[in-house]
Design a protein that fits this description.
There is one protein chain. By secondary structure, the protein is of the alpha+beta class. Helices cover about 35% and strands about 20% of the residues. The protein has a five-stranded mixed beta barrel with strand order 2-4-5-7-6. Helix 1 runs antiparallel to helix 4.
């Protein structure tokens, strides 16, 4: 004799507390995802403007680096990555080695003050050197003597990274922070920017000369479109889930009312 299977009973509707919690979570997540997507919209517009501006500066003719009178007007928005030239004399005894990671490997940027004819100083990143180069001793740095001309890209002063902070007391540098380097080296009248020097001609037999300039990386990843699509898609998923739960709850309550009306004593008297 086969036992009869128990009739299926639909799940009961959720209580008001559970629905309130689910509703609040849906609102919070929906608002957060929409806000993140909108932020990515603005970030994308900013990144596209940055890329266009940098490309324009990179392909502009070489111009004289801003002088003292122009320093207050120098900004990242208008001037960074401009191609500039300047003339002066390097002060090798006060140069700074800043940690660098490049396609050539890990090593240092050699940042040397250049004194111009009017007495101003501009920090010049002469290029990359490997850790063993010259034993990091200023007296064996080498380089052009007397007045020389430098061309390169104007860069704005950098700031400490979260996990790698400059330590002037230990002469340990991770960011090309112009004011901090100037203070540590006792430099006055320093431009608020530095210059990444162009690559020098190759040495004998085509070997690279140190410091090796021209290694500035001008690349700005632009993944904001995929990010904003992701955040907005998540917002739509939350909205879809909320609609699904709402319709499910409505159906369960309607079934519960119909079941109650069909039970003996549940309907109106004839």
């Amino acid at each position: 004799m086969n036992a009869k299977s128990a009739p299926d009973h639909p799940a009961p509707p959720r209580g008001p507390v559970a629905l309130t919690v689910l509703g609040l979570l849906a609102v919070v997540f929906f608002a957060a995802f929409v806000a993140l997507g909108t932020w990515q919209v603005h970030r994308r517009a900013w990144k596209l403007d940055l890329i266009e501006r940098v490309e324009r500066n990179l392909h502009a003719p070489v111009a004289d680096a801003p002088g003292r009178a122009q320093w207050p007007q120098v900004t990242a928005a208008a001037d960074e990555y401009r191609r500039v030239r300047l003339r002066g004399t390097f002060e090798y005894d006060r140069q700074t080695y800043v940690w660098a990671s490049t396609d050539e490997g890990s090593g240092y940027w050699v940042v040397t003050p250049l004194r111009t004819a009017d007495g101003a100083l501009v920090l010049v990143n002469r290029g990359f050197v490997p850790p063993e180069w010259c034993g990091r001793q200023a007296q064996c740095a080498g380089g052009p003597a007397g007045e020389t001309e430098v061309t390169g890209l104007l860069r704005m002063s950098e700031h400490d990274a979260p996990l790698r902070r400059n330590d002037p007391a230990r002469d340990s540098w991770y960011a090309r922070d112009v004011p901090a380097i100037a203070a540590a080296r006792g430099l006055a009248g320093v431009a608020p920017y530095f210059v990444d020097a162009d690559a020098a001609p190759a040495g004998a037999a085509g070997r690279a000369t140190w410091p090796q300039g021209g290694l500035t990386v001008v690349s700005f990843p632009n993944n904001h479109l995929s990010y904003l699509i992701t955040w907005y898609a998540l917002a739509l998923m939350v909205a879809g889930a909320a609609v699904y739960v709402g319709r499910s709850e409505y159906r369960l309550r309607r079934q519960a009312r119909e079941a109650a009306a069909g039970r003996p004593g549940g309907g109106a008297a004839s």
